[in-house]
Amino acid sequence: MPRFSLPDLDLEGFRQRLASVDALPQLCVLGVVSGLITGGFMVGFRLLIDLGALAFMPGGDHEAFEGLSPLMRSLLPILAVTIIGVLLWRQPEKARKLGVGHVMERLTYHQGRFPMRNWLNQWWVGVVTVLGGLSAGREGPAIHLGAAASSGLGQRLRLPHNSLRVLVACGTAAGISASFNTPIAGVIFAMEVVMMEYTIAGFMPVILASTMGAVVAQLVYGSEPAFQVPTVSLGSFSNLPWLVVTALVIGLLAGLFIHVARNDWIKGRPLWLRLGLVAVATAAVAWWYPEVQGIGYDSLSAALTGNLAVDVLLALVVAKLLLTAITVASGIPIGIIGPVLVVGAAAGALMGLFGGWIWPELAADPGVYAMLGMAAMMGAVLQAPLAALMALLELTHNPNIILPGMLAVVVSCLTSRQLCRCDGFFISATRHGLHPLQQPLMQALSRVSVPAVMERSLERTPRMVTRERARSLLARNPIWILIERSNDDKPTLALKAADLARWLMEDASSEQNVVDEREPKEEGMIDLLEIPGLRLELAPIHLQATLSEAFERLNNQAVDALYVEHGNRPKQKRISGIITRGAIERYYSFKDPSSKDQ
């Protein structure tokens, strides 16, 4: 008996349960473990930033660029870009993909599996971009680190790919939750921006993961909200028209940000020119306005309380927006969520000041517009209105702001989408107008792995068999007979066992009357390729694959069925079942997935 056979057996049963769409208890267990792991990594990432700040930042505060000399704070982005250019661009292009965009790419085209090299790069690149004075946030790195760590847990346990998708969402939610102390916004962001779907099977484990991530972060950093703001409200409804104008302006700013960040002219410049542009532009602005550097949460807090001068607010709206967008367009992997919140808050504060100048007796406090601008900018850039509203509520702990926040977010999202023709920042639209993660067929098929639908009742045999061997195959009542190649043990065709049984019955009755001239004469052997019946061409697929992977492979290989391989070593793989195109179509049509193929 092999060692650890009982745990292996239990784990195999766990994997089989996860393959189906209703494995909520198992997914919830994974959500808890994922949240704890991700929360630990997020605390570690934040501690790395704090540790680096102790080396040269005033008071060890990684946001205190204002306390540095103009020369020092201008040299920092030049040094940071140089380090990234030398260390990151010496690696292959695929190793340079980091952040939320990388998470969505791996989820869309690689079933949620992440390369270790990219994950390791994300650690130091995230620290360098924040401490190096670039206009960058820590949320993008946090999402990548959390999603990849959670997916790595599933890969380590060789879980089916449909559960890897849920683990990616769990890591995303826990990463946002631990970074912002916003567990609800983490859940909504994971489902709205990354997964692009809402399902009960997805929500429950993601909620648990986000909760655990927040618990771990609060054990270290406390439970206070990210920003301390006074309890204020919009006041009179007469502010609503000006709020709509504010949201319209912020929507246009979001469109500008996305268009600059996607600018093909910048992307087409030589590498040295792109990196030099980011370094010089950031250094020049930082000489006069250090508030544009780093994440900018200190500036955001000041904007919410009305403690920023007008020229600083203008610098945040114009310079920080353009610097962040140009940095993204130049290929430097940075987090954008933090800078986007800062720009939105500054724009809202400016509009609030302008409104107070026009209608001093009716205008609300500029801090209210700063809060609303923060949510409006996030919603418009990401095209994630619900995530923006939840972030607004949890970041401010001010329920009075939700009603005007809903109006501001919707108007800004519509402006960015309709007037500026912008999709969500992390979505690249296909020619059909839908990201692959948004396509209903792929969403439905990605929730289930092939073990939940495949037919397990089968027998394998060479092409040439005796009648006695054929009867012994049928004695075990298989549904399919897999016919192997003559040169190796890989099956290429599947024959319905019922067709073989029918032929044997007809052959037995014909022997009593007349010799069938078509019957093989050589030692009474039967050629299974000559048996009348339907034969399906086969291609292999792994047991962990989802139905969406199986569907794509059926189309790419131009076959009608797949044999499901089990095992990781080439010489030890065994066939666990067969999955046909008809079985997948029946599942999508909400029929019984376990029904037999016709």
Task: Describe the structure in brief.
The protein has 598 residues and is α/β, with parallel strands linked by helices. The protein has helices at 5-18, 24-56, 70-88, 99-109, 116-131, 139-156, 161-180, 183-195, 200-221, 240-261, 264-267, 271-288, 297-304, 310-329, 337-358, 366-382, 385-396, 402-419, 440-446, 467-475, 497-511, 547-557, 581-588, and strands spanning 458-461, 464-466, 480-484, 491-496, 525-527, 535-542, 561-566, 574-580. A hairpin with a 6-residue loop joins strand 3 (480-484) and strand 4.
Report what the structure shows.
With 598 residues, the chain is of the alpha/beta class. Helices cover 60% and strands 7% of the residues. Helix 22 links the parallel strand 6 and strand 7. Helix 3 packs antiparallel against helix 5 and helix 17 packs antiparallel against helix 18.
C-alpha end-to-end distance: 40 Å
Outline the low-pLDDT stretches: 1-9, 514-523, 591-598
DSSP summary, beta strand count: 8
What share of the residues does DSSP label as strand, in percent?
5-15%
Shape assignment? elongated
Gyration radius, in Å? 30 Å
Task: Name its key features.
six-stranded mixed beta sheet; 598 residues; elongated; two-stranded antiparallel sheet; disordered N terminus; alpha/beta
SSE layout:
Layout lengths: L4 H14 L5 H33 L13 H19 L10 H11 L6 H16 L7 H18 L4 H20 L2 H13 L4 H22 L18 H22 L2 H4 L3 H18 L8 H8 L5 H20 L7 H22 L7 H17 L2 H12 L5 H18 L20 H7 L11 E4 L2 E3 H9 L4 E5 L6 E6 H15 L13 E3 L7 E8 L4 H11 L3 E6 L7 E7 H8 L10
Parallel strand pairs: 1-3, 6-7
Antiparallel strand pairs: 2-5, 3-4, 4-6, 7-8
Helix pairs in contact: 2-5, 2-6, 2-7, 2-9, 3-5, 3-12, 4-6, 5-6, 6-7, 7-8, 7-9, 8-9, 8-17, 10-14, 10-15, 10-16, 10-18, 12-14, 13-15, 14-15, 15-16, 16-17, 16-18, 17-18, 19-22, 20-21
